[in-house]
TrEMBL record:
Region Disordered, annotated ranges: 1-34
GO molecular function, one term: channel activity
Membrane-spanning intervals of the chain: 50-73, 85-112, 132-150, 209-229, 256-277
Protein's organism: Arabis alpina
Family: Belongs to the MIP/aquaporin (TC 1.A.8) family. PIP (TC 1.A.8.11) subfamily.
Bilayer topology annotation: Multi-pass membrane protein
Major localization listed first in the record, in broad terms: membrane
Stored NCBIfam families: MIP (TIGR00861)
Name under which the protein is recorded: Aquaporin
GO cellular component, one term: membrane
Subcellular location: Membrane
UniProt cross-references to InterPro entries, sorted A to Z: Aquaporin-like, Aquaporin_transptr, MIP, MIP_CS
Amino acid sequence: MEGKEEDVRVGANKFPERQPIGTSAQSDKDYKEPPPAPLFEPGELASWSFWRAGIAEFIATFLFLYITVLTVMGVKRAPNMCASVGIQGIAWAFGGMIFALVYCTAGISGGHINPAVTFGLFLARKLSLTRAVYYIVMQCLGAICGAGVVKGFQPKQYQLLGGGANTVAPGYTKGSGLGAEIIGTFVLVYTVFSATDAKRNARDSHVPILAPLPIGFAVFLVHLATIPITGTGINPARSLGAAIIFNKDNAWDDHWVFWVGPFIGAALAALYHVVVIRATPFKSRS
């Protein structure tokens, strides 16, 4: 009997139990998905960290508009592109500021600085509706103040040079502008999801990643591609702040494009991340 039992044990070694691999093989020590954020969380309103996060979003968006719109004004004042930083310089200003500001505020508010990013993260249940609305309001107020300070420095030139307001460029249809904003925002929000994915970082911990860098670089690349089409919005607060302070009809004619496009792009990025990227199939070792 002992010989037969030993044969059974040897046979078991030849055909080991099927072991799960991939995400299904994670142990208790590995990353576990946090529960989705509640739709409403009244307790947040009593927390100083909640209000502090909104203030951080306000200041970050204020600084973002101040530096970027001032850069746009400098380029438009130059007699030609060669006498200024040009489109590449504008793109670097936007991407560089996002890199710096996300780095500064990520630990406080998450470093959204963009209603489209906030909307995408809300759809993915990364934050509550209460926080999302609060962030968007503070981002828009910060953008208005940032553009207002730029106008205060040079009121006449600000109005003459377009105030950094987003418009669909001549030769392009509103549909083309909308498509550019959708795809550009998709690139940005998809990058945000990928760069801040804690599950990916836990799985690939040997790969160091500095989240603000790819996010800022995505903003830079999108600006290079779409400045000639729409001036590049991909941030409704940025478009709203410049439009309110500039306040000319041409800034408002196409303004809906810079809200609808980014929100659609953000929703598509959130859907892609949740349904496709994070839906890793479970496999078993044969």
